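request received
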Amino acid sequence: MGIEVVVEGLTKSFGKQNIWQDVTLTLPAGEVSVMLGPSGTGKTVFLKSIIGLLKPEHGRVLINGVDMVNSPEREIMETRKLFGLMFQDGALFGSMSLFDNIAFPLREHTRKKESEIRRIVMERIDIVGLLGAEDKLPGEISGGMRKRAGLARALVLDPQIILCDEPDSGLDPVRTAYISQLLIDLNAQIDATMLIVTHNLDIAATVPDNMGMLFCRNLVTFGPREVLLTSDMPVVSQFLAGRREGPIGMAEEKDAATLAAEEMNGYGVGISSANAPRTVVPQLEPSPGMPVRQAALRRRERVLSMMGQLPEAARTAIMKSYTPAAGGERL
Amino acid sequence: MPVVPPEPPPAGVTDTAPKTPEHQPPSRLLAPLRETGKLFSLAATVSREVFRRPFQVREFIEQFWFVASVTILPAALVSIPFGAVIALQVGSLTQQLGAQSFTGGASVLAVIQQASPIIVALLISGAAGSAICADLGSRKIREELDAMEVMGVSPIQRLVVPRVLATMLVAVLLNGLVSVVGTLGGYFFNVILQHGTPGAYLASFSALAQLPDLYISEVKALIFGFIAGIVAAYRGLNPRGGPKGVGDAVNQSVVITFMLLFFVNTVLTAIYLQIVPAKGS
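response:
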């Protein structure tokens, strides 16, 4: 079972520019979470802070009792072996073939025999659909393939925590759907805690158990997916609908004057009509033949126990999603 | 553009504007000190990581071979004219002073103690250091180093330590080569062109030169190799934004190494002259 990631009061600035502040959330063990946010809200910075590549000024990130912000470098290095991080553009080693790239963590951290390494690596290459390309250099393959190779490398050590930085960027919709399904299947198989950073609405709607959103230097919300998907906060509904009207502007946030002007011009009417309850798309299920997602069962317990604190709309959506197959599995 | 309304709405996103944390902006005057501090801390980290297992043998051999292959030929080619220049210059000076018989000793001392380590260091930094810096810099901007760190592999231990050790070892070995070639070049020019006598050349050589001269030469080469490796790695690990930043970093690494070399050389020479008495005194 995956490991819980506890983030407390995290604040990060670059020089005078504050990226986000006081971010507090818990990624429940083994569950899939998605962090949404418009471009440039520091989603990638958030991922890098969780894994300790960037050091926020305030706050803690606790994993197995190790604080990824302030603990000694040696402990952080050890804890990082629990992670698999998929970089936005793969971040493969340009001078190594795909095979060597994916084998790199195994060769560095384990004493496995070369035949054993070959077996594991080919298995992962097969999972991400890159069979036949293992001898190519990263410069010789497409961006989407690099991304999938990056995912294979992240998976090779059987990580407990998987972080994905925009798994969809540079992929066509079909491949994005495959990646979504792949992530859910992986979660069912290895039960790792997963955090996906994205602004892809399809992934956001179908993959996660939990969702959060970063906007305007703050964590807008974090909780079960239904809470965000049914939220009527202007930022969230604008983002999920992909509208121009709302608080999100081309450059981060709009100023008050533009907002008011929009309202006067009657965009506000449009917003409220679009605020009619959105339908919550059912979550993806593991492919046939995969084990039951333990995380889904755990999450069900957890969400039902916190029902009382959730908004009405979210409660209805959750009840609806859990009722069809009473007592059994959701469909 | 819609008409701007007279009043902004009372509550909105603008109210959630963050209170920026009260950080005193670091003074620009202290920037050079900060850079120096980081350079030293990298040097300390590298020295510590040298002893951390597993040692990256393969990477070390590859780097050693690379550094050696790009420096051997230029070093030999540079050291012949350099030895010749010193021989000619010292030769004409000693002739005026009437001390021709000491030409050999003086030019050999100059080559072994000063010219050879400096030539080695300049070549290592210019040929190998720039390559190391560009390599690390482009890995850094392509996030390869981040990826490595995320996998729990320290880029310093995995990449920097083998490179620094390689530059040090090549510097020491190359220093031997340059000393020999430079001395032979000096001998050739003194004996053939200035009509010095071989006997006087060799006699004055052994009259003035002593073993500690060779030791300090090798120590210098070792230290210069270390400096060249560390500075190249430091600039490579901290490029400033994009491919142009890597280019700038390479440039700076060579310039910084050169300046450090001459400074450290002065200090080492001064210390050496203080603690090792000249032969015969």
